[in-house]
Design goal:
Elements: H1 3-9, E1 21-23, E2 38-40, E3 43-45, E4 49-51, H2 61-69, E5 73-77, H3 88-91, H4 94-110, E6 114-120, H5 126-135, E7 140-144, H6 154-159, E8 163-168, H7 171-185, E9 192-195, E10 201-202, H8 217-235, E11 241-244, H9 250-258, E12 263-266, H10 268-271, H11 280-288, E13 294-298, E14 304-308, H12 311-317, H13 335-338, H14 342-350, E15 359-360, H15 374-431, H16 433-477, E16 488-490
Helix pairs in contact: 2-4, 4-5, 7-8, 9-15, 15-16
Bound molecules: flavin mononucleotide.
Flavin mononucleotide (FMN) binds next to strand 6, strand 12 and helix 10.
Length: 491
C-alpha cells in the first residue's frame, strides 16, 4: 500500500476556535451613583420604586407625595377612602369619590412628582373612582383585585394621559388582559405589576399556591416578561414589568432587575415611615410583630390575604363580631360568610384601634426594626442596590474570567495533543508503517477520538463565555458613564 493512501485516512481532527472579543473591564471606572429610572408611558421616575397603594387609608396624599417627591412613584389607595369622613355611613359611596379627589389634589399641592391611584376592580364604585382619577389627571392608575378588561374608558384615559397598570399574579392573567385590550380597544396597558404570594394585603392565589415554589415571584417575573413581549412588538412600545411582594432590600430590587423586571412595588416598608398616613400604633404593630404573628386570612373579598393576626380575626372566625354594612362596597362580599366588614376592620386598624381590626402586611414585615423617613428608606434601598450591582458585575466578571481560563486550557490541550502527539505519531507511522502500523494506528485513533469531546467542551465553554459577555455588556449599558467595550481584545 502507498504511504500516501494510508495518510489519506488519517485526517487530523480540526477544531474551529471562534474568536471571542473581550470587553476590557475596569471596575474602578464604573460609576455606580444611580439606580435605573422607571419609565411608564410618558412618566419617568428617577427611582424604579413604586410605593404600593395601601387601603384603607394607609397610603394617602402624605405618603404618596413624599415618595413622589423623593423620586419614586407615590400611590394613593382609593378603596373605601371615604371612611376618612366621619359622615361615611350617611354619604355612602359618594364619600369615596369626594375623598379621593381631595387626596389627589393634596398630593399635587405637595409635589410635582409622579402620583398614581390604586383602585380595586372588585369594588362596586370602581368606575366612579376611575372617573375621579381621570378628571384629576392622576399620572397613572394601578388596577388590581380583578382583571381590568371590561368597560375601561381607554379613550378618556389616553386623552387625560392617565397611564394604566394592571396588577396580576401570572403570565396567563397578563396575556389575557393584554389580548383583550388589543382586541377591544386596539391599545394595551402601559405597564404591569406582578404581585407574588409574599405580598401584603389581598393575594391573587389559592391558599395552597402561596408556599408552592412554582408560584414564587422569581418564577412569575420571567413568565410575565415573556407574556407581554409579543404585545410590545405588536404595538412597538416598551411595557415595564414591576415586581411586588416580599421585596425588602436594595439587593432584592437588584435581583428582580436581573430577572427582567424594570422596577419594584413595595408596600410594607413604606408603612413603617414617618410620612405613612396610618396612625403610629399601626406602624408600631409592624415594628413589634414577629414572624409567627404574620398569617393568612380568608378575606370577604373572596381572596386570601396576609396580615398581622390577632384577637379580632379569632373573634371574627368565631362569629363574635357585630357586622355593620354601609352599602355593600364589594360586589362579592357575603357578610354571612365573612363574619365582619373588612373596610371597617381596616379603617379601625388605620386609626390605631387594632383590637377592632387588623393590619395587612407583607411576609417580611417582621424584619422592619424602626420607623424611618421616606427619604432615608429610599437612600438605604439605593445604596444596597448599587452595592449589589457592583458585586454582581464583579462576580460576573470573575465567572467570565474563569470561563476564559477554561477556554484557554481546552485550546492548549487540543494544541498539545495535535502537535506533540498526533503529528509526531503520524510521521512515525509513515516511517515504520510496516512493523508498527497497526499499533500506532490504534494509538492514533484513540488520541484523535479524545479531540472530539474536547471540541464539544470547547464549544460549550465558548458559548458560556459568550453568554457571560452578553450579560456584562447588558450591565455596562446600564452604566451611563462607562463606555461600553473600552477596547476589544482578540482571543
Ligand atoms: C397595609 C396594606 C394594604 C394594602 N392595600 C392594598 C390595596 O388597597 N390595593 C392593592 O392593590 N394592594 C394593596 N396592598 C398591596 C401593596 O400595594 C403591595 O403590592 C404589597 O404590599 C407588596 O408587598 P410587600 O408589602 O411585601 O412589599 C396592601 C398592602 C398592605 C401591606
Amino acid at each position: 500500500m502507498e504511504i500516501s493512501n494510508l495518510f489519506s485516512h488519517l485526517k487530523l481532527p480540526q477544531v474551529k476556535f471562534n474568536r471571542i472579543n473581550l470587553p476590557k473591564l475596569d471596575l474602578s471606572s464604573i460609576n455606580l451613583s444611580k439606580m435605573p429610572k422607571l419609565k411608564i408611558g410618558s412618566s419617568t421616575a428617577k427611582l424604579p420604586i413604586v410605593q404600593g397603594g395601601m387601603g384603607v387609608g394607609i397610603s394617602l396624599s402624605n405618603l404618596a407625595a413624599s415618595v413622589a417627591e423623593a423620586g419614586g412613584i407615590g400611590v394613593i389607595a382609593a378603596n373605601s377612602i371615604g371612611m376618612l369622613d366621619p359622615e361615611y355611613y350617611a354619604k355612602n359611596k359618594d364619600a369615596n369619590s369626594i375623598l379621593l379627589r381631595r387626596e389627589i389634589r393634596r398630593a399635587r399641592e405637595k409635589t410635582d412628582g409622579i402620583i398614581g391611584v390604586n383602585i380595586m376592580v372588585a369594588v362596586d364604585d370602581f368606575q366612579d373612582l376611575l372617573d375621579v382619577a381621570i378628571e384629576e389627571k392622576a399620572d397613572m392608575v394601578f388596577l388590581g383585585a380583578g382583571l381590568p378588561i371590561k368597560g375601561i374608558p381607554v379613550e378618556r384615559l389616553r386623552a387625560a394621559d392617565v397611564k394604566v397598570v394592571p396588577i396580576v399574579s401570572s403570565g396567563r392573567a397578563a396575556s389575557l388582559i393584554f389580548r383583550s385590550w388589543a382586541r377591544s380597544y386596539g391599545d394595551i396597558p402601559d405597564g404591569v405589576v406582578v404581585e407574588g404570594p409574599m405580598a401584603g394585603g389581598h393575594l391573587g392565589f389559592k391558599p395552597e399556591q402561596l408556599d408552592d415554589p412554582d408560584f414564587k415571584l422569581e418564577i412569575l417575573i420571567p413568565d410575565v416578561v415573556e407574556a407581554v413581549k409579543p404585545f410590545m412588538s405588536q404595538f412597538s412600545r416598551n411595557i415595564p414589568v414591576i415586581a411586588a411582594g416580599g421585596i425588602f432590600s436594595g439587593s432584592d430590587i437588584h435581583k428582580f432587575y436581573r430577572l427582567g423586571a424594570s422596577g419594584v412595588q413595595m408596600g410594607s416598608r413604606f408603612v413603617a415611615t414617618e410620612e405613612c398616613d396610618a396612625d403610629v400604633r399601626f406602624k408600631e404593630a409592624y415594628v413589634a410583630c414577629k414572624k409567627e404573628d404574620i398569617g393568612i386570612i380568608k378575606s370577604p373579598v373572596g381572596m386570601p390575604g396576609r396580615a398581622i393576626t390577632g384577637q379580632f380575626l379569632k373573634d371574627a372566625a368565631a362569629g363574635k363580631i357585630k357586622v355593620k354594612c354601609a352599602w355593600k362596597c364589594l360586589k362579592s362580599c357575603d357578610l354571612k360568610v365573612s363574619g365582619y366588614c373588612i373596610s371597617l376592620a381596616l379603617d379601625n386598624a388605620r386609626k390605631g384601634i387594632l383590637e377592632q381590626g387588623f393590619a395587612f402586611c407583607g411576609s417580611n414585615a417582621y424584619r422592619i426594626k424602626k420607623i424611618v423617613a421616606v427619604k432615608s428608606l429610599l437612600g438605604e434601598l439605593k445604596s444596597q442596590y448599587l452595592l449589589a450591582e457592583k458585586r454582581g458585575i464583579r462576580s460576573l466578571w470573575n465567572e467570565y474570567e474563569a470561563a476564559l481560563d477554561n477556554l484557554f486550557s481546552i485550546k492548549s490541550e487540543h494544541a498539545l495533543i495535535l502537535r506533540n502527539n498526533l503529528i509526531t505519531m503520524r510521521d512515525e507511522y509513515g516511517k515504520n508503517f510496516e512493523s508498527k502500523a497497526a499499533l500506532l494506528r490504534e494509538e492514533y485513533d484513540r488520541l484523535a477520538e479524545k479531540l472530539v469531546p474536547l471540541k464539544l467542551d470547547y464549544q460549550k465553554a465558548a458559548s458560556k463565555a459568550n453568554l457571560l459577555k452578553d450579560e456584562i455588556s447588558a450591565l455596562f449599558e446600564r452604566q451611563p458613564v462607562i463606555k461600553r467595550f473600552n477596547r476589544l481584545k482578540a482571543f
